[in-house]
Input
Amino acid sequence: MSASPVEIKRKKLGKKVDGLYHPPGSLCDGSLPRIDIDIRLTNEEELDTLVHECIHHTLPYLNEETVIAAGTMIAAILWSDGWRKTDDNATGL
Ligand SMILES: [Zn+2]
Output
């Protein structure tokens, strides 16, 4: 598998500041090829969050409502199809 075009960091994030965490538990700073995800999210929340932030990274011109709608739908489809994090790709933090 090729390397990810963005670095995904999992850590305990602080409180939401100026709307930067959207959805709660993540941060995608458009100036950095990096997505931060709070380690306290459930696996389903993490999937939704990761898809959401990937959409922001890939299509930065989309507004927040569009990203939420697309991300939530894609994550729900993936989750209902059985996509899950496994021990092989879990970070174990
Ligand atoms: Zn967002």
